[in-house]
Amino acid sequence: MVSSGGTFELGFFSPSGSSKRYIGIWYKQILSHVQTVIWVANRENPLTNSSSVQLKVIMPGILTLLNAKNESIWSTNTSRSVQNPVAVLLDSGNLVVKDANDDSPENFLWQSFHFPTDTHMPDMKLGKNFKTGHEVYLSAWKNDNDPAPGEFTRIIDPTGYPQVLTKRGISVSARIGPWNGLRWSGSPIPLLECCLFQFIFNEEEVYYSFSLINRSVLTRLVLTYNGYIQRLTWVDRTKRWRIYYNLPADNCDTHSLCGIYGSCDIDNTPVCGCLEKFVPKYPQQWEKGDWSEGCVRRTPLDCNKEHVFIKYSGIKLPDTKHSHYDKTKTLEGCRQVCARNCSCTAYSSLDISNGDKGCLIWFGELTDIRKLSERGQDIYIRMDSSEQESEAGSKRKKAKILAVSFSLLVAMILLILIFLLYKRKKKKKLQLKEDFELPLFQLSTITRATDNFSPNNKIGEGGFGPVYKVYTANLLVK
Questions:
Q1: Cβ-count burial of 320 within 10 angstroms (0-12 exposed, 13-18 middle, 19+ buried)?
Q2: Mean pLDDT, rounded, for 174-197
Q3: What InterPro entries does the entry give (predicted)?
């Protein structure tokens, strides 16, 4: 089965090095260079051969794979029925079961985009429908040659405020962070210019998708068998897939590597450090490279004392599992809400796409923080009021040091300028003296040159006396 535009093909295939047979979808237009499978139907029930096997649509609208004994190996499901069900492979790579006379997506009986394997395709929605409970997520292959479900999954977790998680079994191995109106908070790279990205979160559903601006571009996002997220784009000149990014990109993408209130900075050695005004919970373990217990406030919180919120900038926002949100509040409104509840540990802006809009509030300890100086965000963390005073004192001290340093610098510059001006003036004065100074002669020399001031050599009178003509050197002497 081939899609209408010839981009995709549905059929039987065997992974490299395997004799097992699967029903899958791949890119047809690049098949002569490489077979890139984007979806597998019977990934848990492979066939030993594909002879006498049927893939057919049966009433009330179910697509099923039957073996030689007419036993179902794999099938779709549906809660509705139609008069004339058919299976169609769309040019997006989406295999759908629908009524032959109804092309409306909302009326599809079933679609492969709702049951992806390891590949996120353009126009595919990853997320959860709160009304039906159906969740769309990526499931990695077991290995490069076995499409059976592996250890890793990639989900949109709606707990607290939605964020993207990569999980190994039930444990979180990596987290991209919440959507901030422009991008995922923890994404260290810009979004692709080829695509439009969309995040929808309301009472009925939460999902994330991307669509192509140029439909001729071939791009996909893959969850590899070892837990990496790869964005790949086909380069027609080289006839190869180019990896645009690979996540985790470094150790700091490891979930909660530095523990609570620890911040990971890939440019530091070691990479883990405590947030400012925090100290390691267990200093000896911390010094040995065991950061799992994280950090604690330098000055412990007391709910009976006054608290302040100190701003931390340029970071990946913490895990939002234990967070609340309000799309209507301002940042100041967010601070007021948090200030009234001692269990509220921090707050931040929910949407930074057009100024600060909405409110994201954390309850409990903050974890999985990393430094992202260029693409990071601001967060305001609850602290003892003495920390603000010490911060103000530190700022005053720094300001005083800067003022003294600046004054000394200005004084030095003025002294240098005065010295240079003096040298320049002195040099100019000497030069003028040299330019206008007349040569000196002995009286005996002048007497001989003027023939003892003979009247015959006198040529006139000047302001300073008579002027004589000199025969020896054509000199005029007063």
A1: buried
A2: 84
A3: Bulb-type_lectin_dom, Bulb-type_lectin_dom_sf, Kinase-like_dom_sf, Pan_app, S_locus_glycoprot_dom, SLSG/EP1
Structure tokens given for 129: 């429908």
- What is the side-by-side strand order in the sheet with 205-212? 135-136, 126-129, 205-212, 195-201
User: What confidence tens digit (pLDDT) does each residue in 406-446 have?
Assistant: 778 877 888 888 878 877 777 766 665 555 555 666 777 77
Q: Is 147 exposed, middle or buried (0-12, 13-18, 19+ CB in 10 A)?
A: buried
Q: Which strand ranges, in their side-by-side order, compose the sheet holding 138-143?
A: 138-143, 146-157, 163-168, 171-178
Q: Which 3 state secondary structure label does DSSP give 38?
A: strand
**pLDDT beyond 90 at 464:** no
| Cβ–Cβ under 8 Å, residues 60 and 81 | yes
Residue 455, C-beta contacts closer than 8 angstroms, at least 6 positions apart = none
Pairing mode, strands 262-264 and 369-370: parallel
* Number of other residues whose CB lies within 10 A of the CB of residue 349: 22
Read off the pTM: 0.79
Q: Is the CB of residue 251 less than 8 Å from the CB of residue 271?
A: yes
Q: What kind of fold does domain 443-477 have according to CATH?
A: Phosphorylase Kinase; domain 1 (3.30.200)
pLDDT per residue over 92-112, tens digit each? 999 999 999 999 999 999 999
Q: Give the CATH number of domain 1-115; options: 3.40.1000.70, 2.40.30.30, 2.90.10.10, 1.10.760.10.
A: 2.90.10.10
Number of Cα atoms under 13 Å in the Cβ half of residue 437: 9
Give the span between the Cα atoms of 420 and 130, in whole angstroms.
78
Nearest to 345, CA basis, from 328, 327, 369: 369
Alpha carbon distances (Å) from 281 to 261, 302, 408: 10, 18, 42
Three-state secondary structure call for residue 402: helix
Q: Where are the domains of the chain?
A: 1-115, 443-477
pLDDT in tens, 114-158: 999 999 999 999 999 999 999 999 999 999 999 999 999 999 999
pLDDT band at 454 (very low <50, low <70, confident <90, very high): confident
Tens digit of each residue's pLDDT (9 = 90 or more) over 24-33: 999 999 999 9
